[in-house]
Amino acid sequence: MKSYYENQDEEKNPFDILPETYLVSTQRDMSANPEFNDLLKRYLDSNEPQIWICKPGQNSNRGRGIRIFTNLDKIRRFLEQKAGESWVIQKYISRPILIGGVHWNNTPMRKFDIRMFGLAQ
Hints:
Blueprint: H1 2-6, E1 21-25, H2 34-43, E2 52-56, E3 67-69, H3 72-81, E4 86-91
Antiparallel strand pairs: 1-4, 2-3, 2-4
């Protein structure tokens, strides 16, 4: 990560690599939800391929409850069935930073995540 950051353009914002993320409180009619409407306005008419990840907004870890969608209308229908819950909707990063280096041992490069714990006083 340090090497990646050091090789970036100085004027580039390091937070630009974070995926677009929405925290949505679900309701039976998602068309009345302002966060979801913002998402729809940005991407509904887009021609680019879209992959979205929906994660439970609370009490989730180890990938439990994660759903993958390629269509915003399917996300809307799914969220309407989950009324009263909160969900995190993230745009999938199509070209992520990978680890594994050169395929010297025929193993594919892999995605990774960083989990950190902090202690606040």
